[in-house]
């Protein structure tokens, strides 16, 4: 499989009053061509910051990438200047946000916004770009594409807008698409449409997709591989086929058990006690230890490394116990 | 465009860390606004002068000394003396008390009346809103000072009437700003949630909506005090406010203007005080607005 | 089951007028269009549907936050529609609402203890404060918020904790009915399950009846006994949970069920609906669903389907079954 994106030891922090507060503590992930990778976590887990760091959309915010490497097709994106990065953004890597409204200009017609991007990246003439824009809109299932070109964003429904966003982001044939909760704001029947569409597009264009969501149901619908984040760290990585049977990290397992599943008829759901620790009050060892039903002494002392598990990778002492040697020699923990 | 989203998103991550105290949070942000911070210090200094002024003035501000009239700034009369030989520094300090009490009490009255009108207008809407807003429009149509002159002309000169006049023209701006913030707050979910539990209208207005408008009121209050000082001084200058012999800044300007060619200091120091005080209140108001009410900044 | 009826809704209709400037002066959005359903004492009635289907409006109508145009809401036999405000309040005591957004539904400048006792302040102004606080302490404790946090303000809590505070507040009047409008939708999965469990526990402990409004079918399935499915202001199907999920009749229910992303079941057949949800201000004639319905017939475009009893406690409004 051809590797598109390889993120290693990505660390991002927020500049606060005086200190810099780290939000990502060394993220390692890769996305290959033709694969949909799910990045799952609850709010505050750092999944969105990861995507923004990759796209380098953190400027103008208190966020800053502190260390690490973001390797896209052999180029370290972090070493690029903003002007160079802009050539990648939209053309090579595209991003779809949860709220399409915030990423479209409300006072510019949709057609114009689309053609401008196409002209910029593909260097098409205006006429050719318009034709391309219309065919793109049609390809995402928008009826009367010509009329839509003439409308303003507020005239369209949420589902339509998300289609427009997708059309816009794939119009320059990116190799990598980052989708940040693209269906969270949509209704279920519309969500099903959009997921279907994304899957179709991905299959025909063979692009790589990093799909960020909090919904494990959606992950199982669309993704090939899933990465679970907790408190700014990756805690588990495995293929979706294995997720519901063979997840090994107690957090992943707990999440799966917490979702009500139709036809299960449980009186009560499993629930993970407590809440996500705040960045200022991080436990010393494993960050999940305070909520974990299996926490052992070592979990409170030392943070486990992300090690190979039966079906993927897991950051858990239960898994790693017998691999402690490997831990000490191979991974020095980065705090 | 993109960054608006990004900010929203980052907030979520940052806010998972809750700050303990609203005031500390405010102070942390405010402390960084240096001009506003220094303005606040200056105003606090003025307030000290208001309270303790009479004990620290070097001379009695009303005691004439005909042997030393119109002397230039020099020791012991640091700001010089006026045409009766009274110490200008002492008079300026005494004037602080008049300026601040007049302007603050006037704006306070105006703010209270305006807030009530604004809350009623915004919450109940319909004809009562229209009536109150038309009334405000009419008041807005008069230039502030002309309106104040008119009121003082009817009521007669004197500081008390100056207070009434300034309070009167402060009302519409408070009414408007409180109304617009009421309109916004009354659509929020916690207001609906209070309605759903059967809370009375009075309770909703005073317990749920009013507290949300306080930041805006504070900002407006501060800025209006600046304007009020200027208006009070103008009225006194015109002979409609404080007695001309009293140590009011406006009255001092009025009395001193005959000597402006020879003894510039008599008008310079009271004028400077007016300028600095109004400026301080305006900068403080700007700073407070940035922190308390960021969305109205532009 | 021989449970007695707590709420009976008959022909409930709410029309919102459209702006007068651009539209016809007499245009209306029929947000809720002739609903009939009953909620029995002690059960959880789930109301599902997509945005704009009128499910939240229904909750607000029952609570009296907005006034119905037509129809009846019988609460314990008493029709609430058209009651003057003063009499409404004695019924509001017996039903409380929990809202979706725990960040917006609590007054930001009130302390937690004052928020929780507010319903008592409203309905029992003469009760001594110490008694109110005693009740509040007990309920907060049950909902998992310790007394230690009493003097804090809402912004100091997480979403899940705030929703627990809302729940404690909704219980303080000892209500019979709780209307939960998307009460867990804004919460993270692990927190959502905590709150759902709490709601289930409280139902037993306090003998509560729930009207549980949500767009999330799996959550509704988990918590409800009976479920109503809404589409564009209509109730298209009402059935017991088992009936509805094992044997959905209405094509909309069927597609809705197949659209839910379900972990570990990605291979099942899916009915993906075509097109968008029509605008409520200009709904299709006849059956409102016919524009997206895979089985639409001629009659569906012309006539509004009647409610058909296909089984005990299973009502569907669809021409396929007439």
Automatic annotation (TrEMBL), chain A:
Domain of life, per UniProt, equals Bacteria
One Pfam family, short name: ABC_tran
Entry's Gene Ontology BP terms:
peptide transport
Where is it located? Cell membrane
Q: Which keywords does the record carry?
A: ATP-binding, Cell membrane, Membrane, Nucleotide-binding, Transport
| Major localization class | membrane
- The answer to whether the entry has keyword Protease is no
According to the entry, every stretch annotated as the ABC transporter domain falls at 5-256
In the UniProt record, does the keyword Transmembrane helix occur?
no
Topology class, membrane:
Peripheral membrane protein
Provide one Gene Ontology cellular component: plasma membrane
Gene3D superfamilies the UniProt entry points to: P-loop containing nucleotide triphosphate hydrolases
Output one GO MF annotation: ATP hydrolysis activity
Protein family according to the UniProt entry: Belongs to the ABC transporter superfamily.
What NCBIfam families does the record tag this protein with? oligo_HPY
| Name of the protein this chain belongs to | Peptide ABC transporter ATP-binding protein
UniProtKB/TrEMBL annotation, chain C:
Q: Where is the ABC transporter domain?
A: 7-257
The name this protein goes by in its record: Dipeptide/oligopeptide/nickel ABC transporter ATP-binding protein
Question: Which GO terms fall under molecular function for this chain's record?
Answer: ATP binding; ATP hydrolysis activity
Q: What InterPro entries is this protein classified in? A: AAA+_ATPase, ABC_transp_ATP-bind, ABC_transporter-like_ATP-bd, ABC_transporter-like_CS, Oligopep_ABC_C, P-loop_NTPase
- NCBIfam families, alphabetized: oligo_HPY
The organism of origin for this protein:
Virgibacillus indicus
- Record-linked PROSITE patterns: ABC_TRANSPORTER_1 (PS00211), ABC_TRANSPORTER_2 (PS50893)
Q: What's the source species' lineage?
A: Bacteria, Bacillati, Bacillota, Bacilli, Bacillales
Kindly state which keywords UniProt assigns to this record, in alphabetical order: ATP-binding, Nucleotide-binding, Transport
What's one GO BP annotation on this UniProt entry?
peptide transport
- Family as reported in the entry's similarity comment: Belongs to the ABC transporter superfamily.
Pfam families from the entry? ABC_tran, oligo_HPY
